[in-house]
Amino acid sequence: MSWGFLRDLLSGVNKYSTGIGRIWVAVVFIFRLLVYVAAAENIWKYEHDEFECNIKQPGCENVCFDHFFPVSHIRLWALQLIMVSTPSLLVVFHVAYRENQEKHHNQKLYKSPGEIDGGLLCTYLISLILKTGFEIVFLVLFYKLYNGFKVPHLVKCDIRPCPNTVDCYISKPTEKMIFLYFLVGTSCLCIVLNLIELSYLIFKYSIKCYLERYTKKCQ
């Protein structure tokens, strides 16, 4: 899969972001997307082939793997990256709508189509809320699916058609757990950045509205 479209999307949004938003883009692009493509994807590439159980009962190994890994880590991360990045399209579409309105009326309707104010501010805040929500949902999903953020060395399986409790071994568990902690940590960092940016924008425009009302009142 090519991740070029996601890179282009993040680059496009970067033009309309605040300083905190640009830090978020850098974290997603450098510490999540590049790490995912360059390293994490290869670590989980053959996870099914390298999953071994100490029994040759037909079907037992497949059933045990499906039980302990109902969804592949790597596919869930890919879906997470896509979901947390796509709300930024709302901002891009809103700016494109403003630019189209100016062309249609053949006059300048906004100081700058990319300036975060009015309707675009609401769209930007909604995108931040959606991104934060998706991050939290996927962290909870990871935790529930895999019983915590751990990769055990050994798992015991007694699901049919296994005739008894068998020991199954996961390949490179320490390496996988390090990357798991890293990606969970960057996800938490993105949540913090989104909340900071959300608070900053709300505070900034609350102060702006208060000053405008105070000025009108004085006049």
Automatic annotation (TrEMBL):
<feature type="transmembrane region" description="Helical">
    <location>
        <begin position="21"/>
        <end position="39"/>
    </location>
</feature>
<comment type="function">
    <text>One gap junction consists of a cluster of closely packed pairs of transmembrane channels, the connexons, through which materials of low MW diffuse from one cell to a neighboring cell.</text>
</comment>
<keyword id="KW-0965">Cell junction</keyword>
<dbReference type="InterPro" id="IPR000500">
    <property type="entry name" value="Connexin"/>
</dbReference>
<dbReference type="GO" id="GO:0007267">
    <property type="term" value="P:cell-cell signaling"/>
</dbReference>
<comment type="subunit">
    <text>A connexon is composed of a hexamer of connexins.</text>
</comment>
<keyword id="KW-1133">Transmembrane helix</keyword>
<feature type="transmembrane region" description="Helical">
    <location>
        <begin position="77"/>
        <end position="97"/>
    </location>
</feature>
<dbReference type="InterPro" id="IPR013092">
    <property type="entry name" value="Connexin_N"/>
</dbReference>
<keyword id="KW-0472">Membrane</keyword>
<dbReference type="GO" id="GO:0005922">
    <property type="term" value="C:connexin complex"/>
</dbReference>
<dbReference type="InterPro" id="IPR038359">
    <property type="entry name" value="Connexin_N_sf"/>
</dbReference>
<protein>
    <recommendedName>
        <fullName>Gap junction protein</fullName>
    </recommendedName>
</protein>
<dbReference type="Pfam" id="PF00029">
    <property type="entry name" value="Connexin"/>
</dbReference>
<comment type="similarity">
    <text>Belongs to the connexin family.</text>
</comment>
<feature type="domain" description="Connexin cysteine-rich">
    <location>
        <begin position="134"/>
        <end position="201"/>
    </location>
</feature>
<feature type="domain" description="Connexin N-terminal">
    <location>
        <begin position="42"/>
        <end position="75"/>
    </location>
</feature>
<keyword id="KW-0303">Gap junction</keyword>
<keyword id="KW-1003">Cell membrane</keyword>
<feature type="transmembrane region" description="Helical">
    <location>
        <begin position="118"/>
        <end position="143"/>
    </location>
</feature>
<feature type="transmembrane region" description="Helical">
    <location>
        <begin position="178"/>
        <end position="203"/>
    </location>
</feature>
<dbReference type="InterPro" id="IPR017990">
    <property type="entry name" value="Connexin_CS"/>
</dbReference>
<dbReference type="InterPro" id="IPR019570">
    <property type="entry name" value="Connexin_CCC"/>
</dbReference>
<dbReference type="GO" id="GO:0005243">
    <property type="term" value="F:gap junction channel activity"/>
</dbReference>
<keyword id="KW-0812">Transmembrane</keyword>
